[in-house]
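Example record used in the benchmark description.
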Amino acid sequence: MIDEFGPATVEVVSSVEFEAGDETARPVPTSQPCPTCGAPRVVEVPRYESPEPLVVDVTPFPDLAQTATRILRWLFEATDGHRPWSQVLHLATPPVIRSLRVAARIYRDPADATRVRTVHVSQPHEGAAELAAIAWIGRRYRAVAARLDLGPGDVWRCTALRIL
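Model output (structure tokens):
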């Protein structure tokens, strides 16, 4: 396209280059002609400069997946009535316990116990874990989302739980 300022040009960036010891990226341009008129194109791409240093990976907590699965199973056992609530009070915050007591009234099926099928755990930062699980609750599979926080004495505690 040619206008009063002359042909428009765009420079397409095809890759990013890093220098040793430099956390900022510099685009490596690749020219492609305009699909309409065939003229070379140039696009101004600003240099990205992160205000924060690059994130360092979180050190995984040992046996977190097993611990998270055990906590979910124990909480659901209490919901089903197979475990006394007094045994799981230390595993969850009071709002989580209250919501599970309500869920027990809604989903409890004496003929069919709740079963945790799969648990996927991620650690967004030190001392926190996010869980995505599939559980058999109330005669159907349901998604479960939960958050565990590391408390004093390296004890994990469920601070949020949602049955979807």
